[in-house]
Amino acid sequence: MSLMVNSPFSPDDVDVLRGALDHWCVEKRLSIKSAEAQFAASAAIDLFQSGHNTSEKLLAALREHRTL
Q1: 38 vs 28: CA distance, rounded Å
Q2: What is the pTM of this model?
Q3: 36 Cβ partners below 8 Å, 6+ apart?
Q4: Cβ 36 vs Cβ 30: under 8 Å
């Protein structure tokens, strides 16, 4: 059974989110397991749900996010 059964995100959505977050972490020289990356992941979900639904749009929004 898939863990994504009740998720509002498709596997493609998760790929977009993870790809943008991975790229952001590389740019910031942060571990994906860091507290900063966890905060960015939460922000990325919010940004994705507000319409930044491609890797490019999401990464740009993460870069411009005022609290990251």
Answers
A1: 13
A2: 0.85
A3: 28, 30, 68
A4: yes
Contacts of 62 (CB under 8 A, 6+ apart): 20, 21, 24, 40, 43, 44, 47, 68
> Per-residue pLDDT tens for 9-56?
899 999 999 999 999 999 999 999 999 999 999 999 999 999 999 999
Render 6-62 in DSSP notation, one character per residue. T-SS-HHHHHHHHHHHHHHHHHHT--TTSHHHHHHHHHHHHHHHTT--SHHHHHHHH
Distance CA 15, CA 26 (A): 16
Residue with tokens 């999401």: 58
